[in-house]
């Protein structure tokens, strides 16, 4: 990234200087905590803004939506539009994500997606309702139990010397730890067929891996991501071997069978290679977990800020889907997607996009575009207007969108009804990062 010139004599405050400063601001801790003023500054200069070094900042809804759907743009920088395979970088975590469907273009993307899409098809998701409702009930019971424990002299320990990360202090629980991260983890693990006793390892591993999705990647975080990727690959290699020996009705067994054969995809009998299969498992675990945990945390935080709307969720007078759409619009758990032109001669909203351009599609900015939404910064569960762009669009439209919506629509009312006096109990801490927007800690008291 280029830096602004600081010599006032030579500095011309061109749009590009400002755009570069905006991008740099977004990558700071303050910018990641509250990117919205910077998005607005960018938008006043145009819905698509060149920021130097071939980067475009896309903040307009229409431009963002069109770009995510445009097949002339893809995810990889390669001119042919085909993934280079998992060999291109020394970092395991990056190799795993690069080999996954999230970062590949057709035709490889089409093949990979077709192997898993049936598991997440909208028609199959309602069947998961009883499973999700049971998981929600169990977690609410545990919350009640832990809240009781949080009020005792032993609060904050699981026994001698073992701190319980769910308990922040007398009467105070961390909602992210005790509920928001555990529900999606248990649902995605259930779908994949990960045994219950193995799941406790995954929150930390999955969180460590998410740095791979961010623009700013501190070196120590990259090392931690590589270590987490190695552990997950080992785990899933082992689980695959177990499922091949004794197949079950789960996603790991299904993909293990699809990958069985000569060990390669193209030109072999197998429909996906072992590397692609392991990448898929890691991607599903990470994407099915962090994002939905953030949706639940962001929804609860917004319900604290809008107690009338929250009361309406308890007695059914606030439309649940309208409430969740407002959470997804104002506090999108995924704030941007990246797209690159696959051929010469393209533009984004009239701004030239030569090969090598990286367009940062700021979904969180598009969701507050005043050309689409009246009073865009206001939370209004009754609003009409286009669907928020929280799940992306086009070929990469979020595979788990119906599942995430179902989890949140079961969990949120159940939580608010079970604990009518649920309230914030201290300063929340946001997770750092520009792409994933959510809380690291969200302290709550139940009564
Ligand atoms: C609120 C929760 C969620 C949000 C906000 C979210 C957001 C997104 C977004 C924006 C994309 C598109 C990225 C791009 O275009 O580059 C995406 C893709 C994806 N999501 Fe989600 N997601 C959520 C939950 C889930 C869940 C529960 C799963 C399930 C397993 C999941 C699996 C995926 C996968 C596999 C992709 C890649 C699809 C592809 O490239 O074809 N997501 N998600």
TrEMBL record:
Q: Which PANTHER family match?
A: CYTOCHROME P450 YJIB-RELATED, P450, PUTATIVE (EUROFUNG)-RELATED
Regarding protein family, the annotation reads:
Belongs to the cytochrome P450 family.
Listed Gene3D superfamilies: Cytochrome P450
Q: Name one Pfam family in it.
A: p450
Q: Provide the protein name.
A: Cytochrome P450
- Where are the coiled-coil regions? none
Under the heading InterPro entries, the entry gives:
Cyt_P450 (IPR001128), Cyt_P450_B (IPR002397), Cyt_P450_CS (IPR017972), Cyt_P450_sf (IPR036396)
Which branch of life, at top level?
A: Bacteria
Where do the segments described as Disordered lie? 146-167
State the UniProt keywords alphabetically.
Heme, Iron, Metal-binding, Monooxygenase, Oxidoreductase
